[in-house]
Amino acid sequence: QVQLVESGGGLVQAGGSLRLSCVAAGRTFSSYSMGWFRQAPGQEREFVAAISWRDGSTDYADSVKGRFTISRDNAKSTVYLQMNSLKPEDTAVYCCAAVYRILSRAPPALPSKYDYWGQGTQVTVSS
User: Fold this and answer.
1) Is the separation of the CB atoms in 4 and 69 below 8 Å?
2) For the chain, how long is the longest CA-to-CA vector?
3) C-alpha angle 53/59/64, rounded to 5°?
4) Measured in Å, how far apart are the chain's first and last C-alpha atoms?
5) pLDDT tens by residue, 71-112
6) How many other CB atoms are there within 10 angstroms of residue 65's CB atom?
7) Could you report the per-residue pLDDT of 28-46, keeping only the tens digit for each?
């Protein structure tokens, strides 16, 4: 069992930056692959980025490649999402998710692969 709490959301102008944090409490954080997902009103949940527990390998949605960076600090049980060059279409509730010791080499991009979810933090990008 792990509890996830996100922070760092807010209102920012287009072109600006935000850094989201997700702190995990519970079992050994280093054994979890972590993902960030987002959901805008009336839309499906969308994969943003993920980082593997095995080797720290990462994966990104095409829409955020080159702008967003996922990272983790196992000593702080925290995963981060650095978001640069933000666009109005990035506006959404951002949630982090965790899965324990998944066998796949790459970090999972499907929401169904994750077992634990945070409540989310709102990101609003104004034009």
Assistant:
1) no
2) 41
3) 135
4) 40
5) 999 999 999 999 999 999 999 999 999 999 888 888 999 999
6) 10
7) 999 999 999 999 999 999 9
